[in-house]
Write a structure and sequence with these properties.
Structural class of chain B: alpha/beta
Largest sheet of chain A: none
Largest interface: A-B, 19 and 31 residues
Shape of chain B: flat
Shape of chain A: flat
Strand content of chain B: 25-35%
Helix content of chain A: 55-70%
Number of strands of chain A: 0
Largest sheet of chain B: 5 strands, mixed
Number of helices of chain A: 4
Number of domains of chain B: 1
Oligomer: heterodimer
Strand content of chain A: under 5%
CATH topology of chain B: Major capsid protein gp5 fold
Number of strands of chain B: 12
Distance between the termini of chain A: 25 Å
Radius of gyration of chain A: 18 Å
CATH class of chain B: Alpha Beta
Number of domains of chain A: 2
Order of helices and strands of chain A: HHHH
Mean pLDDT of chain B: 93
Structural class of chain A: mainly alpha
Low-confidence stretches of chain B: none
Low-confidence stretches of chain A: 109-116
Number of helices of chain B: 8
Mean pLDDT of chain A: 85
């Protein structure tokens, strides 16, 4: 992966954006791995191998959720939309439309930025060049 | 509505963007502690205390009942006020590039110094014990002869290794010592800065608010900064001439492994 996860020159990106990009790439990789295990589980017949792969897929579930939680904490608007969609019963698309509308309109009414937090988003500076 | 009350300020979206950018640019180089300690969060403005996982026995005035109470480290809210004149904000909206943010710059420096000082030297009233005051090793005096700094830092690392504290290591240098290091080259023309970095196998950080210097292990898990609200700009008041704003954050800090740091006094 290396620097491929960046779409802009890394030197021009602030440290928090590079961290955000790393975790976004990690989230993608975990989702891919979950999909791969799903396929392997569908075709495997050896019970012992199945047990190992179920355990491995569980690890990927955990990693995916941790990545997602990190990204949501850093992006309040995303978090607000997610809150309206995740763990809700009923029509997913409908919830998505409603959550987006409420969150974006609410943020706009507050004069808050539509991406990023009301904070300056500085966070950790470990590894940042001084 | 956010408690920062930004929407009540007579400031356009564009000028808010410039204020935030100026604050970010001024704060980032000065927030030395965040380059060296573990940062967790932000956990939000409503996050009030850090779980210490410890309890204290309390008297229970009830028959047959014993009780313990959780101990927590409350987050401290640190705020630095500043003002921007409405004339400057109007010029910002006209596209002026040389807006006078001097008071914001001063506030950003004050907040960064406070955060660094709290982490490295403590903040008694806020219940924060700093890295340098927690370190059990006998400190070495840094002095003004910066050619001796590599030896001092090497001795500090030796003592950390002897205590079983692995590297890489980082060095927080107070402004005076940092200036001396930047200006100096050793015999043979090797930059002192590069020599120190090689010894540390880690970063050397300009740390306003630090007295002397502090060597810390960067292996992780030793120094824990917990952010509630990360640094934000909020609105306080305004009149016909100026808008009163503030920089604010809430945080706690604790040292989990005092042995993982070595203080070098001025």
């Amino acid at each position: 992966m290396g620097a491929d996860q960046y779409h802009e020159p890394p030197d021009e990106l602030p440290a928090e954006t590079r961290t955000f990009a790393r975790l976004s790439a990690s989230l993608t990789e975990e989702a891919e791995a979950i999909g791969w295990y799903e396929q392997r589980l569908a075709v495997e017949s050896d019970r012992e191998a199945l047990a190992i792969m179920r355990d491995a897929q569980g690890e990927e579930f955990k990693h995916f959720c941790m990545d997602l939680e990190f990204l949501l904490r850093r992006t309040p608007l995303w978090r607000e939309i997610a809150r309206g969609i995740l763990f809700q019963e009923g029509d997913i698309v409908e919830h998505g439309e409603e959550a987006e509308e409420q969150a974006v309109e609410g943020a706009a009414a507050r004069g808050a930025p539509l991406s990023g937090s009301a904070s300056l988003g500085i966070g950790s500076l470990r590894g940042a060049v001084q | 509505m956010s408690h920062l009350l930004r929407e009540h300020a007579p400031i356009t979206e564009e000028s808010w963007g410039r204020i935030d950018e100026e604050a970010r640019e001024r704060l980032t180089p000065a927030l030395a502690a965040r380059r060296l300690v573990d940062f967790s969060g932000p956990l939000g403005w409503q996050h009030s205390a850090t779980n210490l996982g410890r309890v204290a026995t309390v008297k229970a005035p009830f028959t047959g009942i014993s009780a313990e109470q959780r101990r927590v480290l409350p987050l401290v809210e640190a705020r630095a006020n500043f003002a921007v004149t409405r004339a400057e904000l109007a010029d910002s909206d006209r596209g002026a590039e040389d807006i006078d943010f001097a008071d914001l710059d001063r506030a950003a420096h004050d907040l960064a110094v406070a955060e660094n000082a709290a982490v490295f030297h403590g903040w008694k009233a806020a219940g924060i014990v700093g890295i340098a005051e927690a370190a059990p090793h006998k400190p070495i005096a840094l002095g003004n002869d910066c050619e001796r700094y590599p030896r001092h830092v090497a001795m500090a690392i030796e003592q950390l290794l002897a205590a079983g504290i692995d590297g890489p290591y980082g060095l927080a240098l107070g402004p005076k010592a940092h200036e001396l290091v930047l200006e100096s080259s050793e015999h043979g023309g090797v930059l002192l800065l590069d020599h120190l970095r090689k010894i540390l196998a880690g970063p050397l950080v300009w740390a306003p608010g630090v007295e002397g210097a502090v060597v810390v292990s960067l292996r992780g898990g030793d120094f824990l900064f917990e952010s509630g609200e990360d640094i934000s700009v909020g609105y306080l008041a305004h009149d016909a001439d100026a808008v009163q704003l503030y920089l604010e954050e809430s945080f706690s800090f604790r040292v989990a492994t005092p042995e993982a740091a070595f203080a070098l006094t001025p």
